[in-house]
Amino acid sequence: MNKDLTVGKPETVLWQFCLPLFGSIIFQQLYNIADSLVAGKFIGENALAAVGNSYEITLIFIAFAFGCNIGCSVIVSRLFGSKKYGEMKTSVYTTMISSGVLCAILMIFGLVCCDVLLDLIHTPSEILSDSKLYLNIYIWGLPFLFFYNIATGIFSALGDSKTPFIFLAISSTANILVDILFVAAFNMGVAGVAWATFLCQGVSCVLAVIVVLKRLSVIPTEGRVVLYSFEMFKKIAVIAVPSILQQSFISVGNIIIQSVINDCGVEVTAGYAAAVKLNNLVITSFTTLANGLSNYTAQNIGAGILPRIKDGFKAGVKMVWLLCVPLVALYLVAAKTLVTFFINDPSELALASGMRFLYIVAPFYFIISVKLIADGILRGAGLMKNFMIATFTDLILRVVLAEILSRQIGYIGIWCAWPIGWTIATGLSITFYRRGPWRKAA
């Protein structure tokens, strides 16, 4: 069901829109951690390290898919808010065609450069073959990743957060079951983990695209809808390209950090692989809610109702802090249990490195959550320059500090780079938000 986010009390509207997103967050994280969980529990510590090692490279491809999602979602939200339905459909078709071309280029690059990428991050020899196997299968599934993200972005742009939740719930649950089937029953090893993701994501992608096209077909428009518009492509690119660059540079930064971690040995790599999955669970949760704020902001700007943006920011911060309280408490109290959840009989070093990551990073979730909410509004308003400055500041600081501090105090120095980068970048994001065009709106 399409929903207009420009009417009703902002906090109530956002809660109604974001509640299914909370559910989506749970299943998205089940999807994300399933591969590592099954690899660590049913195969072994090296398999967990291999999946975690490859994951940092897959984030590059996810960055491009996410950029296409955001570019399409923001423009569709804006056109939906201003009731320009013909242009809205053109933006959807333009995104799908352009994303298909981009996806093909990335697949060729990934398959050709797989060995180079794994070598760049200093992949330990013990996990090299499994890392390559997982990564190659993942790359063949990129079309599913791209078009699924575009479809969910369109649903959100139309104010519908329930339909993506349903698809994600079914897909993530199936992924866990197929993971266990392929690994535990068929003894397919790391390949089974990768093929399970491929199959489940493929089915959910096809269904999501079919439903979104049917949803668009019933929205009335006057005249013939243009299937591809270069002018519309440029509008989408203004939002998508900075988002892709932002996510790509974050991924490149994470790869650099991963290479520093890999130099600490397989045990630290395995501990990090477990802890970073738990960390990504939280960050992805905040980012999902921030994406909801982007849709809310874009619809209200399209309708010319700027005062609602400030109310949306307050409601967004309230939501993420309510999420922070139980998660921070859980990570600080149950760090050992959570890390061992991924690894059977972990070594002392693997366990210690994973636990210390959570102890150092978790308290700062209250800070980074505010940055991501502010970023969601900046992105929805099209203020991409400010958005990128804050993001790159965080990234550059984390990469540089990880390299420097690792030489002084080992892997603990790498973990300390996170809260320092987050804190400074959050200050920038809040400053940019306060300077937005809604600051004087009454």
Features:
mainly alpha, 442 residues
Task: Give the secondary structure arrangement, pairings included.
Layout: H1 10-43, H2 45-81, H3 85-120, H4 128-140, H5 142-157, H6 162-185, H7 189-217, H8 230-262, H9 266-302, H10 307-333, H11 335-340, H12 348-361, H13 365-380, H14 384-409, H15 411-434
Helix pairs in contact: 1-2, 1-6, 1-7, 1-9, 1-10, 2-3, 2-4, 2-5, 2-8, 2-9, 3-4, 3-5, 3-8, 4-7, 5-7, 6-7, 8-14, 9-10, 9-12, 9-13, 10-13, 12-15, 13-15, 14-15
Describe it.
There is one protein chain. The chain is mainly alpha-helical. The protein starts with 9 loop residues before the first helix and ends in an 8-residue tail after the last helix.
How large is the radius of gyration? 21 Å
Broad structural category:
mainly alpha
Beta-strand content bin: under 5%
Overall, the morphology is globular
Helix and strand element order: HHHHHHHHHHHHHHH
Q: Main sheet? A: none
- Counting DSSP E segments of at least 2 residues, the number of strands comes to 0
Mean pLDDT: 85
**End-to-end separation:** 31 Å
Residue ranges: pLDDT <50 for 5 or more in a row?
none
> What is the count of DSSP helices, taking H or I runs of 4+ residues?
15
Helix percent band: over 70%
Provide a quick synopsis of the model.
The chain is mainly α and 442 residues long.
